[in-house]
Amino acid sequence: MTTTTQTLHDQALATSAAARRLAVISTEAKNAALTAIAEQIEANREKILRANEQDLQTAKQNGLDFHVLERMTLDNARVKEMADAARNIAALEDPIGEILEERDLPNGLHLQRVRVPLGVIGVIYESRPNVTIDIAALCLKSGNGVILRGGKECILTNTVLADIVKDAIESAGIPREAVLFIESTDRAIVKEMLEMDDVIDLMIPRGSADLVNFVGQNARMHAITGGVGVCHTYVDADANLDDALAIVVNAKVQRPTVCNALDTVLVHQAVAREFLPRLAGEFGIHDVELRADGRAMSVLDALSDGAKVTPARADDFGTEFLALIASVKIVDSIDEALDHIAEYGTGHSEAIVSEDTEAVERFLNEVDASAVFANTSTRFNDGAEFGLGAEVAVSTSKLHARGPMGLKEITSYKWKVRGQGQIRQ
């Protein structure tokens, strides 16, 4: 049934009821459902790809940006990744019921603090169909109901994937209402969701800064309002420049349209004349445009054809490019690099390349971000890469979770108190 603002609340109440049942379902049943999801994704690969091709054709006709098209594109490998994610989550330890602490009080009361589901999680997302599977699977394993509202650009693909999930969990004895996918692309639905604090316990936006900000300003329930990534890599005076080149190129090129991809390279002046021409040449091979500040431009302006170097504008620093573009700035010290990141970073993913232990530790300790990296790529700020199976989001918030949000980050806890007739005096 197509969801409208008139029917959404009733359907959400059914998801809430299903979530109460899901909260006490056995680990074995949840894992069986996740395995069924993986098997059905593989069995329906051609159907998924056909729907995705239709979405892509419509998106191209509508003139959507390259980064949107890239994020929404599925192929055999990405379909396999979705199935693998469901299996990986099934293999993880079930967090529900974990005893976080336990003790006896002097009056004889026995206390336990126990991990429990949050309840119902709402997710508003754009472009990436793998989000449908990742979040549904994480919510299932953590005992949460979920309400999914994907963007219109990927509606056919997401509908197919949501149907697969609902059929698979039902086959394992879990109520299909535990997963509600909103098929309507009416924007009024978003506002309706943000007002349903009586049903939805946590709201997660996945998409543009405009979407994240809109949810943050209008949600009546707690919302994860981070996730926009302006990511830096600082190449220190004591960097291994071969390592630095490989790390910076990977952080920019491996998948430039995602939130943990590099946006700005900060290079210490002591190594700039050696490192920057190498970087520009390697970026040229990968068709990356390098936007250089004045000092970097003076090093790079004599380069031969092949490198794509242009003078940076002021707004090239602090911009999440989501494209094959990177800005570069020469700095005189690690202190200047730290100050630049503090001014322009968004608290997502920041990296240093250095063989100076003191510089590395300063960077790791002083940079305020959800994940801070030494001598490796920011592209590792990811739930699957961190061993979480997948993620519902990469949060740049500080409450209640930060960084890749896996199973434990979408749970809460409650106190269990057992007595033998004690009364308070």
The CATH architecture assignment of the largest domain turns out to be 3-Layer(aba) Sandwich
Q: How many structural domains can be distinguished in the coordinates?
A: 2
Based on DSSP secondary structure assignment, what is the total number of beta strands? 17
CATH class of the largest domain: Alpha Beta
Amount of beta strand = 15-25%
Which residues sit in consecutive blocks of at least 5 with pLDDT less than 50? none
Morphology: globular
> What is the tally of helical segments?
14
Structural class: alpha/beta
Radius of gyration: 24 Å
Q: Distance between the terminal alpha carbons, to the nearest Å? A: 56 Å
Which topology of the largest domain does CATH recognise?
Aldehyde Dehydrogenase, Chain A, domain 1
CATH superfamily of the largest domain: Aldehyde Dehydrogenase, Chain A, domain 1
Major sheet: order of its strands? 11-10-12-9-8-13-14
Please give the largest β-sheet.
Answer: 7 strands, parallel
Mean pLDDT: 95
Q: What proportion of the residues is helical, as a percent range?
A: 40-55%
Notes on the protein architecture:
This protein is of the alpha/beta class and 425 residues long. α6 packs parallel to α7 and α10 (241-253) crosses α11. The chain is built from 14 helices and 17 strands. The longest helix has 18 residues, at 5-22. It folds into 2 domains: 5-224 and 405-418, Aldehyde Dehydrogenase, Chain A, domain 1, CATH 3.40.605.10; 231-380, Aldehyde Dehydrogenase, Chain A, domain 2, CATH 3.40.309.10. Helices cover 42% and strands 20% of the residues. The strands form 4 sheets. It has a 7-stranded parallel sheet with strand order 11-10-12-9-8-13-14, sandwiched between helices. The chain has a 5-stranded parallel sheet with strand order 5-4-3-6-7, with helices on both faces. A 3-stranded antiparallel sheet has the order 1-2-17, with no helix packed on it. β13, α14 (357-366) and β14 form a beta-alpha-beta unit.
